[in-house]
Amino acid sequence: MANYKVSINREGCIGDAICTALSKNWFMDSDGKASFHSETIEDHEYGSNHEAEISCPVAVISVRKIS
Ligand code: SF4
Question: Per residue in 5-15, pLDDT tens?
Answer without folding.
Answer: 999 999 999 99
